[in-house]
Amino acid sequence: MASYIGSRLLQAIPVLALIGLLSFALFAYVGDPVTIMLGQDYTDAQRIALVHTLGLDRPFYIQYLRFLWAALHGNFGNSYRIAEPVSTLIAQRAPATLELALTGTFISVLIGIPMGVITGIWPRAAFSRVFMVISLIGVSLPVFLTGILLILLFSVVLGWLPSFGRGSVVHIGAWWTTGLLTVSGLKSLILPATTLALFQMTLIVRLVRAEMLEVLRTDYIKFARARGLKTRAINFGHALKNTLVPVITIIGLQLGGLVAFTLVTETVFQWPGLGLLFVQSVAVADIPVMSAYLMMVGVVFVTINLIVDLLYFAVDPRLRVRRSGGGR
Amino acid sequence: MAALLEVDRLCVEFPTRRGVLRALDHVSLSIAAGEVLGVVGESGAGKSLTGAAIIGLLEPPGRIAKGEIRLEGRRIDNLPPSEMRRLRGRRIGAIFQDPLTTLNPLYTIGRQLVETIQTHLPLSDADARARAVSWLEQVGIPGAADRLFSYPHEFSGGMRQRVVIALALCAEPQLVIADEPTTALDVSVQAQIIALLKRLTREHGTSVMLVTHDMGVIAETADRVAVMYAGRVAELGPVASVIQEPAHPYTAGLMASIPALDRRVTRLAQIDGSMPRLNAMPPGCAFHPRCARAVAQCMAEQPGLMAAGRTEAACWVPVKEALHG
Ligand SMILES: Nc1ncnc2c1ncn2[C@@H]1O[C@H](COP(=O)(O)OP(=O)(O)OP(=O)(O)O)[C@@H](O)[C@H]1O
Ligand SMILES: [Mg+2]
Question: For residue range B139-189, what is the model confidence (pLDDT) as tens digits?
């Protein structure tokens, strides 16, 4: 177990270093930070002094290592647009994005898995067919369109829910803000979280359903039936657990895709999270923010992959034996 | 002996786009308490289908179109699903062919045993676990108490089939349907598994419907044999009579093709042609196109099981002379 986690962590290091290189290249070579920071009028002496302070006169690899070292300490320099440390900006925005992404995923898993199981058990039932048509629409609609349609219906026509922003938030501790504790915060969360959940959910339903259909045909399910086990135990125990490995993989990959979808969703709903921060930074070529965002997305991907691997390990005993080299 | 299980003129059909296929046609057989009924026949003869119908697990769209299945005189073919479920495992068990695929790979065998036991018997966790250990010991798993926590992939094929047998018998059903329980196993362990099955079912007084291609196993294990052909029972009788004095020409061909009784019935060397397909069944007796003894009646009228010598055969012109000795 420990060696398995260890080897996974070791594999993550080169991946992160590579992402660091990309994000450093973006930082160092796209745009000219010196010009941007000095503004219109400057003397050569000022310029050389700044180049020296920023360390831009040092060899490439020294700069890269210094960048990594600083990044490890959460230091990505200052934003060009707002003269504040990038780390502060990110810390301010992260709670909003995390709450949105987690709520969206939670909803999609909570609805998606049972619906997948049910439509897999009764593939011919009328409600299964209706649900599959709906989910097909869900898969094919682009996220921004879903968002806009939801705004149109629930904000413009019905006027029930706010169309943008995060509502009022409550501070928890030094740096966390949450919208989950106020009515306006919760109301604001519904539409963007639903938008985010809808796409993921339809994919999860289709995947769980396909896996379910496959597993229900296996001999061990037939044997479980032949032993008279309860239908619920067979469907939601024996069968569902066997669909989990592929489902976890896809949900893991999906969570990666979530980065892209939060970006779109946050833009549509003007949700004050990291995605919106990134979009705003791209518009004015705020390189430090962009490179920090890139770095962070990399870390998120690697972390999710690690979690997915650990979940495999928890679900499938066959992996455990192979990894630990023998066993009984 | 009063019959434990009676299958009475059972017809199983598959509705298809091009009409209804009748896969079992008036199959009748019975199994007495404690008896081992062997079922033989070529591939596609309907052996597995008969087992599936008895245990109530026909795959849709397959359905029982006619006939009855009775357990201790009570009809079970029309029970509501929940009652049929309670009966499975508790009164009729099943052993499948391939032990590599019949165990859930993600649960320990202890969990699978305890779950099965507690589904049918009102036992505490500790008692159910004790019973699980006892069954693992009975099927000859060494270190049974420790092996509760092992996963299926940690056992060899033969050991897994022992676990499957424990799972099938752990709620002590009155009847167990063993559909080719050794076909997927190494030749070296086949005999052990059959011996184990024979011993356990005798000790517990369990009746067995043993489907196999191995006439040697039938001769050694079964009390009576049913020979199936094209979804019908061709011949039914005590094992010695069916082997030595078969009345149905098909059985005669079957037996003659395996003189040493140790080879598998895979292909019939002595009978030309092959079993008719379900969508091209000949009128009359299904065997008549391959039968040297066929007369006009065979092509016109379908024979039912009739007493013929020491067995019952579905044949208008049964064989009279003994095969061996
Ligand atoms: N879903 C189905 N649709 C149509 N026909 C089917 C279906 N399932 C089984 N059959 C037919 O039922 C017949 C009997 O099949 P069964 O599996 O009982 O044969 P078997 O005697 O067990 O053969 P084997 O020795 O190969 O196991 C076969 O002709 C098969 O084609
Ligand atoms: Mg079969």
Answer: 999 999 999 999 999 999 999 999 999 999 999 999 999 999 998 888 889
Quote the number of domains for chain A: 2
Q: A26 near A290, Cβ under 8 Å?
A: yes
In B151-305, beta strands by DSSP E: 175-179, 207-211, 224-229, 232-238
In a domain, A210, yes or no: yes
| Per-residue model confidence as pLDDT tens digits over B78-122 | 999 999 999 999 999 999 999 999 999 999 999 999 999 999 999
Same domain, residue pair A100 and A218: yes
Rounded Cα distance, B123 and B115, in Å: 11
pLDDT value of position A31? 66
**Share of residues in chain A with pLDDT > 70 (%):** 95
CATH number at residue A301: 1.10.3720.10
For the segment B277-290, the average pLDDT, to the nearest whole number, is 91
Whether residues A140 and A244 share a domain: the answer is: yes
Residues in A closer than 8 angstroms to B167, CB to CB, are 223, 227
Torsion angle in degrees (nearest 10) through CA of B154, B156, B158, B160: 20
How many angstroms separate the Cα of B26 from the Cα of each of A1, A274, B61, B64, B281? 58, 72, 19, 11, 14
Q: What stretches of B52-146 adopt beta strand conformation (E)?
A: 63-71, 74-75, 92-95
The runs of H, that is alpha helices, within chain A are: 2-29, 33-38, 44-54, 60-72, 86-121, 126-140, 143-150, 183-216, 219-226, 231-232, 240-268, 274-283, 287-315, 317-324
Count Cβ atoms within 10 A of the Cβ of residue A232 and give its class: 0-12 exposed, 13-18 middle, 19 or more buried.
exposed
For residue range B112-149, list pLDDT tens digits in order: 999 999 999 999 999 999 999 999 999 999 999 999 99
Best residue among B47, B182, B210, B211 to mutate for probing ligand 1's pocket (most ligand atoms within 8 Å of CB) is B47
Report the C-alpha gap between B53 and B36 in whole angstroms. Answer: 18
- For residue A148, tell me if it sits in a domain: yes
Residue span of the structural domain in which A9 resides: 2-72
Do A220 and B103 lie within an 8 Å CB cutoff?
Answer: yes
Answer yes or no: do A266 and A121 share one domain.
yes
**A77 within a domain of the structure (yes/no):** no
Q: Is the CB of B29 under 6 A from ligand 1?
A: no
pLDDT digits (tens, 9 = 90+) for A131-151: 888 888 877 888 788 888 888
